Amino acid sequence: MAHLSGKFIKVSSPEPHVLLVELSRAPVNSFTTEFWQDFGRVFDAISLETSVRAVVLASALPKLFSAGIDFTGLDGLSSTEPDPARRALNIRLDTKRFQDAIAAAERCPFPVIAAVHGAAYGLAIDIITACDVRYAAENARFSIKEVDVGLAADIGTLARLPKIAGNQSMVYELAFTAREFGAGEAEKMGLVSRVVPGGRVEVVQAALQLAGVIAKKSPIAVLTTKKVLQHAREHTVQENLDYVLTWNSVMLQSSDVMTALAGAKERKTPEFRDLTKPPAAKL
User: Fold this and answer.
1) 20 and 100: one domain?
2) What does the DSSP 8-state code read for residue 166?
3) From CA 56, how far away is CA 14, in angstroms rounded?
4) pLDDT at 130
5) By CB neighbour count within 10 A (0-12 exposed, 13-18 middle, 19+ buried), where does 137 fall?
6) How many domains does the chain have?
7) What is the mean pLDDT of each successive set of 10 residues along the chain, which is 283 residues long?
8) Which of the 8 DSSP states describes residue 134?
9) Do residue 193 and residue 231 come from a single domain?
10) What range does the domain containing 101 cover?
């Protein structure tokens, strides 16, 4: 899977159907324009890989996940347009591209599991809230840092975190103050689902184990489940019931259903076919 890697992102396949995506821009994984563009490209490319069934997102650096944005490396902040309205439109367009790049993890059809260790500040929260499952090492430290640099978080934290966390008061407190909070508080509020004893090695291994479990399931069932869960987050119960009716009217016809039933009957792990690429478009 080396062909998927970027300048600051390493992609490997430690076990069948599972990808490990590692952020690797020393010394602190701070994001420049080139870095976030690469992030979006890598995840959009992963979305087209038919053999993939689960993805783990981690840091390759031993001490931390990400320190957030490298403001000196963001092209959109250096516009020379003198007119405020036109300058604002340029900033808006650049920020929208930034949002879309980070959202690539969310729109990836396969489950994305974030494995966080050490510092995860600012943009790191935007990134992990776009993931489906989040594990934290016990040494993880988080901060919604944007107010300390004079802005409101605009790449996804304020949109997604209130829908993830079970404690809205804590969300507001953390967003208003930018104070650091640890893995225990992150688990308590619902930002992470598991705190793993140890550091980078241990949390990445735990995330890979979870990815391995998911990778043994029907890829059709898992893909559909992610789509329906995402829809449920934004819609009423009845709207979501109607949505899953449409999805499953097709997906229940998959051969994966019979494969899963046969595996259960024979008391063995079923082996599912990979997804298939669509035929090339005809001109």
Assistant:
1) yes
2) S
3) 10
4) 98
5) buried
6) 2
7) 89 97 97 96 96 98 96 72 90 94 97 98 98 98 95 95 95 97 97 98 98 97 97 97 96 93 90 84 57
8) E
9) no
10) 2-215
